[in-house]
Design goal:
11% of the residues lie in helices and 33% in strands. The chain contains seven helices and 31 strands. The protein has helices at residues 83-89, 97-101, 354-364, 369-372, 375-385, 402-405, 431-437; strands at 21-22, 32-39, 43-53, 60-62, 70-71, 74-75, 90-92, 103-106, 109-113, 115-118, 121-124, 126-131, 139-140, 145-152, 160-167, 202-203, 206-207, 213-214, 222-223, 226-229, 232-238, 243-248, 256-259, 292-293, 298-299, 304-312, 321-330, 333-336, 352-353, 387-395, 442-452. The strands form eight sheets. It has a 16-stranded mixed β-sheet that branches. It has a three-stranded mixed β-sheet with strand order 1-7-4. A hairpin with a 2-residue loop joins strand 27 (321-330) and strand 28. The protein starts with 20 loop residues before the first strand and ends in a 7-residue tail after the last strand.
Length: 459
Amino acid sequence: MFSKLALLSAILTAFSVKAQLVGTYQTETHPSISWQKCTKGGGCSNVSGSVVLDGNWRWVHSKSGYNNCYTGNTWDKTLCPDNKSCASNCALEGADYSGTYGITTSGNALTLKFIQQNSNGKNIGSRVYLMASDTKYQMFKVLNQEFSFDVDLSKLPCGLNGALYFSAMDEDGGMARFSTNKAGAKYGTGYCDSQCPRDIKFINGEANAEGWQPASNDANAGTGNYGSCCNEMDVWEANSISAAYTPHPCDGTQSTRCSGTACGGSSNRYGSSCDPDGCDFNSFRMGNTSFYGPGKTVNTNSKFTVVTQFITDSGTASGTLKEIRRLYVQNGKVIQNSKVNIPGMSSSLDSITSDFCTSAKKAFGDTDSFSQHGGLSGISKAMSVGMVLVLSVWDDHTANMLWLDSNYPTDASPTKPGIARGTCSTSSGVPSDVESSAASAQVVYSNIKFGDIGSTYAA
């Protein structure tokens, strides 16, 4: 619902930005991870993959030395006097995944630590992408398919978000479309989402230094003139208190660069080519306060499986998305998604459909930018092309994650439908607080499966 890039902090000034050239000081070795491809008749088979760190966390320096291209939350004016010069002057370095960033894999499991102390300071948050090869992202075409994974977020308190989602990024990170991008998917370039984030340091093979404004509440971030927009399917945004899944359609099918207020944001939230709000299903927000959380029906004190089904109107991969269905499996028990309990909405609703989205926007009094950008049929077009799997952990410098786990907006009555989203205090989630109190927080994603509907879990 809010920009995932602006809300993630980097370890220190040297490791807080991505570029388009490639450095030679640190060998880039992607941590390996396996996942499974499943069919109804043939069961599941292992697929060997890996993960790559988003370029925004990497050290970027002068291509012929150690000078930082970006320090604190400002650009070096000598190396980056303009966007094109910056891209040609700056090199993106390889990553020490475990030592610097707290990112480790084991078999089919990925662990992302929220805070990782290291010799250079500390890393805060991370984002990685699933790779099909050393130079290409794994592309998922989810129409008429099912996606499942196990997650342990028992150590994610209020204010944190373990997010797993699909983004309509280029398979090669943008190298083919933009000749000045020499780093590509191998170094985690090409990020985009439905918020059209303007804090991305390099977009379309160029820097975003021109017009850069340092953030007043984040020592590592800022915004440039440009943003990067694309379709986004939030399969999972959650901590131990609240969870939501949310499609965000855009007008096109691939990433596009926007400029200024056309990127949306606080000054013009609905002015971009994408839907920033999406159509979210959060069980707590939908009126069932006992369904998800510690000791509840889906008990976040221990690991569980999240299953998401992308149903089309024809029941085939060539059809148009009509429903996004959710269920859970925990301790060998299949748990159907919670039902809606909101005045003005049908109590039979328990999945994301066009009827659900329309009635929720009306019941909550929300702007219906979802339907304005094509709704489910809009994001269906991007899904048919293919999307990249993103796995992350982050804190929120914009809204303290209150939109996920507390009452939001904070100046509205929590008794108004749609305002209460979880049990966290409205004073929770301040990044400086959670970065201190939740230093041991982490999320573990494992057992990723993808295939025919009904093939990735045991009923």
